[in-house]
Amino acid sequence: MVFQEQQPNFLRTGHAACAGCGLAAGMKLVFQAMGHKTIAVIVPSCEGSIGGVYPNTAYGVPTFHSAFEIAAPTAAGIANALKIQGKDEIQVVAFAGDGGTYDIGLAALSGVTKNNDDIIYVCLDNEAYMNTGIQVSSATPSYAWTGTTPEGNPRRKKNIMEIMAAHYNPYSATATIGFPRDLQQKIVKAKSIRGTKFIHLLVPCPTGWRTPSDLAPELSILAVETNVFPLYEVEDGRRYTLNHEPRSLPVQEYLLKQGRFKHLNEEQIRQVQMDVDEEWERLKQRAGRFASRK
Amino acid sequence: MKEFMTGNHAVAQAVKLCRTPLIAAYPITPQTPIYEKLSEWEATGVLKGIMMRTESEHSAMASCIAASLTGVRTFTATSSQGLALMHEMLHFAAGCRTPVVMANVNRIIAAPWGFWADHLDSLSQRDTGWIQFYCENGQEAMDSVIQAYKISEQVYLPAMVNLEAFLVSHFMEPVEIPDQDAVDHFLPPLDLPHKFDVEKPGFLMTVVSSELYRKYRHMAQVSMDSVKDVAVRVDREFKDVFGRGYGIVEPIAMEDAEVVIVTAGSITSTARLAIRSLREQGHSVGLLKIRLFRPFPNEALQQVLAGKKKIAVIDRNNSMGSGGIFCQELKAALVHSEDRPYIYNYIAGVGGTDVNPEVIQRIALDAMERSEPMDQPMWIMEE
Amino acid sequence: MNIHPDLLNELLIPISYGSTAVIETGKWGFQKPYTNFMTAPCQEACPAGINIPEFLYLTSEGREEEAFFSVLRENPLPGVCGRACFHPCEANCNRSQYDESVSIQALERYVSDRASIEIDQIQPIPCGESAKSIAVVGGGPSGLSCAYFLSILGHRVTLFEAKKELGGVLRWGIPEYRLPKSVLKREIRRILSLPIELKTGVAIGKDVPIEDLDRFDAIYLSPGAGLKVSLKIEGEAMKRVWKGGEFLERINSKEKIRLGKETLVIGGGNTAMDVARSALRLGSKVTIAYRRTRNEMPAIKDEIDEAEEEGMRFEFLVQPVKIRQGQKRRLAVTFQRMKLGGSDEGGRPRAIPIKGKFLTLETDDVITAVGEQVDLSWIPKGFVRGGLIGLNPSPKVFAGGDAVDQPRTIATAIASGKRAAMSMDISLRGDSEEAILSRIQVGNKGSLSMASYLSVREGETSAEPKGVATYQQMNPLYFAPSQRVKIRKRSRAKTLKNFSEVNMGLRADEARFSASRCFSCGTCNYCYNCYFFCPEGVVSLDPFSRTRTVDFSHCKGCGTCAKACPRAVVEMRITL
User: Fold this and answer.
1) What pLDDT was estimated at residue C33?
2) Which of A237, C42, C453, C462 could form a disulfide with C52 if both were Cys (CB 3.0 to 4.6 A apart)?
C-alpha cells in the first residue's frame, strides 16, 4: 500500500515537547495516518503536557485529555457512542505512555481488549515515566538508569506484545519512528480492522535516555537493527509477521549511544545480548518466515 | 401498570424507559441485579444500545464520561467499594459536566467486610460534584432515575440515585411502571453543547491556569446551586404527568411538631409509622425526609423548619471524628436560624443494623426530654 | 433540551480551539537547519559533468523523461556513453565503499533508450543578437558535443566532417556489438534537430583551405586520431598483418573480412579489445598479447572481463620484436619476454625486457592495436605544440578531442567540446572566463555544468557547490545493503555468431531499483527523512518545485533533520 508522503499535520507547530522529542514525531506520524475523521484520547503523560495550554491546542482533531489509567476505556466509550450514533466513519485513537499502558492502565487496556472495543490504542513507549522526570516503569529495559533506579534497572522490560497477543485481539504491531512508512502503513491497516488494535510505538526520549537531541530516529533504527525492538505484527493473537529483516547488529551499537546505559559493564552487555538473541529466536519461530508487505 | 419487583429492577426499568443507549458496569453486590437485568435486555434487544462489560467500576465511569462527551445518554450502577474505586472519575465526570446518571446501592464500606445498608459510601463522595438523591423505596428509585436524567441534562452535572442495600435494592414491592410514550415526552433526547465535533476540532479538558480553574469550578457551583430549583420544577412536572411527586425535601406532620425527626432513605418509611403511633400517644412529633442531598437544600430546609425548637437527625452513617453527615449539613444550614433550634444527632442503622419503629420512638422521646443541647452524636447501640 | 440560562453564554468546560502555532517555539533553539548541497564524487568524476544524483533520483521516481533531459543538459550522447564510456563515475561512487557502486552507466543507457524514442527534438535557447557563426571541424564525439552546446546556446554552427557520415570513432571505431549503429544514428539525429549546418565529405585543409574558415566568428578544431601508429618492427608490412583502426573501420563499413583459424592481437587498450572481440565474432581463436599484465591494461575492465567470458586468451609480459613467415602459410611472431619494474611518470609500472628470453607464437593473422595519431599536417604550424593542438591557440580558435592533451576517451572528448562551447560563448559575449568557470566547475576535476552555466548566463547568483561529498559524511544506517543488478547479456552462443549487442540493458523494475540504490551524496533526493522525523512538523518538501523549507519560527533546533539526513545535505548553523 502506498501512503502519500506529505499529509496534513494534525500535531500542530508550537507544541511544548522537548527539542528532538521522539514521541512528538511519533504522534505526528500517527495523526497523519489517522486523518481528520478521528477523535483522540490522551492521558496525563508527555502527550498531555505538550498539547498546549488553554485556549490553544497542538491537536488538530477533537481530543480529550482523560485520566491517567483509562486511555482505553475512555476511547472505548467514545467508540461505542459513535457506533450508537451511526458515525462509523470516525475512528478513535488512544495515546498512552508506557506507564499508562504497562503499569497503571494495564487492567483497563486488558478490559477493553477483552471486549474487543473498536479502538486504535497507541502505546508511546519511551521506556520510563518521563513526564514526571525519569522514573522506572515496567517498560524500562534492563540496567537502564532512571531517577528511581540510580544503580540501573534490575528487571527486564515487560513483554507487552505477548500480553496483548494473549487477548487474541485482531491486530497488534510494533513500530518506531525510525521506520515512518512502516508505522503509517500499520496505522492505515489498523484503521481497516474492527476491534481493539494495539500499536506498540517505541519513541526515543533524548531527555530521559540521556542522549543528544538529534538522535531519536537513529536510536529507533538501531533498536530495530540490533533486534532489541523487532518490527512485527500479531493478528488474532496467533499469526506473527516480521516486517523488517534486521541487520542483527550487536546491542552495543544501540546501548552505548545512550547515557542511560553508559555505566553498563561487559557482563551486563553480554546479558542484554543473550536476552535479545533469545527473544529474537522465539519471535522468528513464531513468525516462521519474513513476509514482504504487499 | 403495576408490577411486583425489587428496587434494583425498578432502577433497571427506569434506565430502559429513558432509552439510555450506553451502559457501562461492573458487578458488585448488591447492585449486580441491575447490571444483569440490563445485560439481559441488551442481549435480547429489548434495550437498544451497548452494554460495556468493563473490567472495573473505574473504567465503567471512564467509559460513561467519554460516551457522554460524544453525545449519548449513559448509565452505570455500583455500590460501596466500586463507588470508592470510581472516586477519581466521579470528580472527572462533574468536571467534564457530563450528565451521567448512576444508581448507587448503599452498602457499607470495608473494612471490616459486610454487605448491608449504610450511607457512608455515597456520602463520602459528597464533594465530587454529583447531584445525590436518597430514595425510600423502589418506586421512588425508578422515578428518581427518570427525574435525574431530566435534571442532569439541563444543568450538565452527573447525578447519583441512592438506594439502600437489600432494604430497597432487594425488597419486592408493587411498582407503577410509567408509560413509555409519556417518558419519551417527559425526557427529550440528550443534546450536549460541548461534545466532540470532527468538523470543529477542540481539545477538551486542556490544562488551564489557576484563574481559569477557579472560573470553571465556580461555574459548576452556580449550576449545582440551580439544581435546587430545577429539581423542584422537574418533580412538579413529573407529578403532573405521572401523578407522583416527592419534593426535594418532604415535611410530614410538621405544623405543631415540638420535635422533628430528620431521615433519609428507607428509615423514612419506618419513621412514618413511628410518628403515627407517637402522635396517637399524644406526642407532637413531625418528620422531615431529605431526598436531595447534593446540592444540600438549605433554603427549603430553613423554610420547613422555621419555628422548630428541637430537631433529631437520624444518620445511617458516621463521618469518623465528626458524626452523622446529614446532621452536620443540617446544622450548617440552620446556623443563622433565629429560632436557634437544638439539633440532636442519632447514629442509627450503621452497618445495616435494624432501625425499627421503637428505636425511632425512643429517639423522639429522648429528644423531647432533653432541655440542653447535645454536642456529641448519640450512637444507638442496642442489639 | 433547554440549556439553563446560566450556561448560555459560556462554554461549560475548557475547550481549546486555538492553535499552539501562535507560540513561537523557534525561539527556544539557538541553531537552525540549512540546506548545504555538495557535489557527488560520481558527478565530479564524470568528464561531462552529468548531474548523476539528479538523474538517478528522477529515474527512481519513475520520472524518466525528466531524467533524460537532466542527462541531455550535460551530455549530447547518453545512448553512446551509457554503453561505451569508461564510467569513472562508478569507480568514484561512494556506495562502492559500502557494498557495490551504483549502476550509473547502465542507468544512463536506460533513460536514454526509454526516452529518446519519444524525444528526438531539442530546443535551443535563443540568445538574440549575441548569436555568432561558428565553424566546428570534425564530426566525432567532441565536434558533435561542441556543435550541440553552441547551438543550444543560440549560435549558428557549421559542422564540417571529412567522411560521408558523422560520428568519428563512434561510427568507425567501436564495433556494433558494443554500440549499435542505430543508437548512434538516433543520437546524431537528435543533435541535428538543432539548427546546425552540416557539411559532410568536406576535409578542411584538403577540400577547403583552413583560411576559408576566417569568415566564421570562431572555429573549433576537433580532428580525431585517424593516423595509425606503427609497431616499427620487421614484418609489419606483411600480408595478414592488420592495423587495428583499419580493421575496425572495414568491419564498421560492413566489408567482408576473412580471418584464419587463429588471430593474434597486439595491444592492451580499448582498440585492442574491440579488435580482438570482433575477430572472435569472425570465427577466429584470438589471443591478446600485451607487454604488461592484466592489471596494467588500459582497456575498460568490463571489456576485458567480457572478452575473457567470450573465450579470449591472453599472453602477458611480451613485446613483439619480429614477424616472419611461419609454416603452412602461417605467421610466426617473436616476442621479447618482459617483467615489471619501477613506475613511469604516469604511475604505471614499466615493462622491462628480460635479457635473452624470447617467445614465438604461430598464427594465421596478426592485428596490431597500439594507438593512433592525429593528422596535423593541415593545421597551421603556430597552433601545434608537442604533436598536439593547444586548447585555445588563437583568440578565435579552440580545439579539443583527440587533438589536445587529454585522455582519449569518449567522455573527455564530449567534455572538451562542451568546455570549448562555453569558452567561445563567454569570449564572444565579452565575459570573463575565469570568473564564470570557477562558478560552474563541478567538483575539482575540471568538469563543467551546463545547467549552472545557463543560470549564471541568465544572471542568477547560483553556483555549483564547492565541497565534494565523502563516504564518511554519509549515514549508512539509512541504506539497506544491496547488490547491483547483474546486467543481462545475450548468450555467448548467440553473440559470437554475429555483432548484435551483448548487453541487454536494465528492465524498468531493475532500473528503478538500481537508481534507488544511489546515496544521492550531497543532494536532496526527497527521502523525506527530515520531513518524517521532525518532531515539530516544520519541514516542508516539494519534490516537483525542488524546494525544502523550514518554519524557523517553530524550529527548536534539535538537529534531528541534519543528523537524519543520510546524505549530509542538511547542516545546523548557530543563529544567535
Assistant:
1) 96
2) C42
Q: What's the CATH number where B145 sits?
A: 3.40.50.970
CB C194 within 8 A of CB C148: yes
What are the tens digits of pLDDT across the range B69-80? 999 999 999 999
Of residues C237 and A117, more confidence is placed in A117
Sign, Cα dihedral of C256, C259, C263, C264: negative
Q: Closest by alpha carbon to C280, among C372, C365, C406?
A: C365
Count of CB contacts below 8 A, A vs B? 148
Q: Which residues pair with B294 in a beta bridge?
A: B132
Which of these, C405, C398, C389, lies nearest to C426 by C-alpha position? C398
Identify any residues that bridge with A123 across adjacent strands, giving them in sequence order. A96, A200
* A47 part of a folded domain: yes
Which secondary-structure segment (H or E) carries B333? helix B325-333
- CATH number of B259's domain: 3.40.50.920
- Give the residue from B216, B225, B227, B229 with the most C CB atoms within 10 Å of its CB, the best one to mutate: B216
Average of per-residue pLDDT values in chain B: 97
Residue A16 domain-assigned (yes or no)? no
* pLDDT at site A7: 82
Q: What are phi and psi of C10, to 5 degrees?
A: -135, 145
- Burial class of C454 by CB neighbour count within 10 A (0 to 12, 13 to 18, 19+): middle
User: C366 - beta bridge partners?
Assistant: C241, C264
For residue A61, count CB atoms less than 10 angstroms from its CB and return exposed for 0-12, middle for 13-18, buried for 19 or more.
buried
Domains by residue range for chain C, with CATH? 20-37+524-574 (3.30.70.20), 41-119+468-516 (1.10.1060.10), 128-226+374-430 (3.50.50.60), 229-372 (3.50.50.60)
Task: Count Cβ atoms below 10 Å from residue C337 Cβ, excluding itself.
Answer: 15
Structure-block grid coordinates of residue C531: 520531513
| B154 and B253, same domain (yes or no) | no
Interface test with A, best of B47, B54, B195 (most A CBs within 10 A): B54
The predicted model gives C324-334 an average pLDDT of 90
Q: Which residues contact B14 (CB under 8 A, 6 or more apart)?
A: B141, B142, B143, B144, B145, B146
Minimal-distance CA residue of chain B relative to C3? B154
Domain enclosing residue B340, as ranges: 249-379
Q: Which of A54, A94, C19, A78 is nearest to B205 (CA)?
A: A54
Task: Locate all alpha helices (DSSP H) within C102-213, ordered by sequence.
Answer: 104-116, 141-152, 169-172, 181-192
Instruction: Report the distance separating Cα B201 and Cα A60, nearest Å.
Output: 6
In DSSP terms, A196 is beta-bridged to: A119
Cα distance between residue A93 and residue A95, in whole Å: 7
Which of C239-252 are b and which e, b meaning 16 or more Cβ less than 10 Å from the residue's Cβ? ebbbbbbebbbebb
Do B54 and B60 form a contact (C-beta atoms < 8 A)? yes
Q: Are C538 and C28 in contact (CB under 8 A)?
A: no
Beta strands C331-343; C227-228: pairing state? unpaired
> Given CB atoms, is B22 within the 8 Å cutoff of chain A?
yes
The pLDDT of residue A264 is 97
- pLDDT, residue C122, reads 67
In sequence order, the 6+-apart residues with CB closer than 8 A to the CB of A140 are A98, A127, A128, A146, A149, A153, A157
Distance CA B186, CA C358 (A): 121
Q: Return the partners of chain B (3 or more C-beta pairs < 8 Å).
A: A, C
Give A215: exposed, middle or buried? Use CB within 10 Å, 0-12, 13-18, 19+. Answer: buried
Q: Which of A73, A84, A115 sits opposite B62 (nearest CB)?
A: A73
> In this predicted model, what pLDDT tens digit does every residue of C395-408 receive, in sequence order?
899 999 998 888 88
Q: In this prediction, does ipTM exceed 0.90?
A: yes
Percent of chain B with pLDDT over 90: 99
pTM, two decimal places: 0.89
